[in-house]
Amino acid sequence: MARYRSRSLAFKRQVAQEYLAGATLHGLAKRHDIWRNLIRVWVEKCEADAFDEDARAADLIQAYEARIAVLERLDGRQALEPELLKGAVRFAASPRGGPMSAIVGAAASRLRGNAT
């Protein structure tokens, strides 16, 4: 469970605009169930246009999180590929029931003949 509530940028702007329009700090804090000091911080950010920077940062974080999700899915697929290939090799039939050796055919016969 989150320890702190997160408010949208639109809500923060609305509360700051209400204060700048003449609403009292105490009345806004009571109506929205937030701290008066938090409203002061929002008003300062609103006056300094810092909410736009926060919005850009939030968009950047969202884009990074989406990219991370894509990379995690790709990593999961790549982790499964070796296991899939191991299973495919294990269940693959040997060619025509013959031996599975790197040395086969006439060359193998010559080697045996030369070794004696």
Largest sheet: none
Give the tally of β-strands: 0
- The DSSP helix count reads 5
Strand proportion: under 5%
Topology as a string of helices (H) and strands (E): HHHHH
CA-CA gap between termini: 79 Å
How do the helices and strands line up, and which of them pair or pack?
Blueprint: H1 9-20, H2 25-32, H3 36-47, H4 50-91, H5 106-115
Describe the structure.
This protein has 116 residues and is an all-alpha fold. The protein folds into 2 domains: 48 residues; 40 residues. The chain is built from 5 helices and no strands. Helix 1 packs across helix 3. The radius of gyration is 34 Å and the shape is rod-shaped. The N and C termini lie far apart (79 Å).
Give a summary of the structure in a few sentences.
This protein has 116 residues and is an all-alpha fold. 72% of the residues lie in helices and 0% in strands. It contains 5 helices and no strands.
Keywords:
about 120 residues; mainly alpha; 2 domains
